[in-house]
What does this fold into?
Amino acid sequence: MNDVKLAVLGGEGTGKSALTVRFLTKRFIGEYASNFESIYSKHLYLEGKQLNLEIYDPCSQPQKAKFSLTSELHWADGFVIVYDISDRSSFAFAKALIYRIREPQTSHCKRAVESAVLLVGNKQDLCHVREVGWEEGQKLALDNRCQFCELSAAEQSLEVEMMFIRIIKDILTNFKLKEKRRPSGSKSMAKLINNVFGKRRKSV
Ligand SMILES: Nc1nc2c(ncn2[C@@H]2O[C@H](COP(=O)(O)OP(=O)(O)OP(=O)(O)O)[C@@H](O)[C@H]2O)c(=O)[nH]1
It folds into this structure.
């Protein structure tokens, strides 16, 4: 069984728990305890594979630690970065998180393949008080090789489910790429033996 680890990050009150709980239970509860972090587990069957999905939903971070993310970056295979379309400061926070994830020393040295990231503009039902345009979200995502969508955890169960499935599929694609790029020990050894002995045999 494949383990897939997903971290849902974003500013305070953007709807990280609402999205996670909506995906796991198809329900929107309204108020969520925000003073403790959670790791949820779910078994999924996707693309012919059994998956053990773990979703990390942090409690709101204290200001000083908000961009350190060191443990999340090591732990997660992919990230859902959430902002609230009616709150510009949450968009700035999401941007800083994406830059942190895409920092060269984070994305290239530690990982053979760039992490899958999906940027989500949540609370689309509040579009009458919108502060962040759809195009801005789309551009931030495109510029940083992320997927993008806008939705409402409050009103759109199916869209939330499709959003999670999309990022999980991206993570699975990355697993396959990593597998391809990993030098296979036995293949390399066979190549080496062939190069050395194959050539000698020819010259005799
Ligand atoms: N209108 C609207 N409200 C939402 C939506 N999603 C979440 N909320 C509300 O936004 C508030 C914060 O939601 P949470 O899910 O607790 O947000 P969070 O990001 O997990 O919050 P922290 O853990 O405190 O950072 C709650 O009052 C939710 O009911 C949405 O799609 N539309």
